[in-house]
Amino acid sequence: xxxxxxxxxxxxxxxxxxxxxxxxxxxxxxxxxxxxxxxxxxxxxxxxxxxxxxxxxxxxxxxxxxxxxxxxxxxxxxxxxxxxxxxxxxxxxxxxxxxxxxxxxxxxxxxxxxxxxxxxxxxxxxxxxxxxxxxxxxxxxxxxxxxxxxxxxxxxxxx
Length: 159
What we know:
By secondary structure, this protein is an alpha+beta fold. It has helices at residues 9-18, 28-40, 76-79, 101-104, 140-157, and strands at residues 45-51, 55-62, 68-70, 86-88, 111-118, 124-132.
């Protein structure tokens, strides 16, 4: 299933582009957070992404070598549709993602947890997300901790 678009997509895209971060290389100040997330949650992959009109730009990534991904196949484009942490415990059993090339092929994503990175004006810019090659359980405390970390990432990104 292709990713949906928020009703405020034009305003959201303006906010994403206003950050000046689209297409910029990774930075140590953001890499610290993805390393921390990877270790805190014992996940093989952690990313900070910005969701643009046709791509999801990877600002920081641990455990995967990628700079951008087509928006239409990303989990993060689904995560920015709401304010809650999006958790997909087993993508192979989720109708939105079961046939997704990121699930069926490399990197064989089975688990996804993503928290929106939200600007002060309420626009969802992207996500802090965690990926695993196997299904997982993600507790309420895990969701709260990921949200806390995402809010810290937001403060750093838009500082």
